[in-house]
């Protein structure tokens, strides 16, 4: 659930805010997310390491850092386990997302999608309808319905607009 939450928050932020003209983040992160709406199958043409590389660059140092957490208590073991599962989920999110775009997936993946353990194709397809402003969570997709019902991302957008004056999806015309 935490990996799904963070995947949704990051996906929403990259789709909604900022400019592809920003240095480093713009062409390397924001442009990739927004181009995915133009070419949804593009992710399926990337190699495995290209799909998970950026996520692993974030997750692995954090995971390595858990070695230094004192593990003498049950609570510490519990927290390290939650963190490890979260980081594993984050690391695999783009691969799971890729499977949601593939015509044919291995049987075990199809089984996990059908059980809704990982992001199912039909639920993710909702995100790829204009204006690309729903179903941002791409690990399991479990939070998408809840977030839609409570207008989670719309409310966050209104708050950010109120605080900063920035408008959500200001560059959408470039990508549609």
Describe this structure in words.
By secondary structure, the chain is mainly α. The protein is built from nine helices and no strands. The protein has helices at residues 2-16, 25-38, 48-65, 74-99, 107-114, 121-125, 142-149, 152-164, 172-175. Helix 1 (2-16) crosses helix 4 and helix 3 (48-65) packs antiparallel against helix 4 (74-99). The longest helix has 26 residues, at 74-99. The chain is globular and about 55 Å long.
Query: What is the number of E strands?
Result: 0
Structural class: mainly alpha
Average the pLDDT over all residues and give the rounded result.
91
Please tell me what the overall shape is: globular
SSE pattern, N- to C-terminal? HHHHHHHHH
Low-confidence segments: none
What count of helical segments does DSSP give? 9
């Amino acid at each position: 659930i935490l990996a799904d939450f963070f995947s949704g928050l990051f996906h929403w932020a990259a789709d909604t805010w900022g400019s592809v003209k920003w240095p480093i983040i713009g062409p390397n992160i924001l442009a990739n997310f927004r181009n995915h709406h133009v070419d949804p199958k593009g992710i399926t043409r990337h190699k495995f390491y290209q799909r998970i590389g950026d996520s692993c660059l974030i997750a692995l140092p954090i995971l390595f850092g858990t070695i230094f957490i004192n593990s003498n208590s049950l609570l510490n073991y519990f927290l390290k386990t939650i963190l490890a599962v979260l980081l594993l989920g984050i690391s695999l999110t783009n691969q799971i997302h890729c499977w949601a775009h593939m015509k044919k997936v291995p049987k075990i993946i199809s089984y996990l999608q059908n059980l809704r353990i990982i992001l199912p194709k039909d639920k993710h397809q909702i995100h790829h309808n204009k204006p690309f402003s729903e179903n941002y969570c791409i690990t399991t997709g479990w939070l998408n319905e809840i977030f839609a019902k409570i207008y989670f991302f719309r409310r966050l957008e209104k708050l950010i607009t109120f605080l900063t004056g920035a408008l959500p999806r200001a560059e959408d015309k470039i990508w549609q």
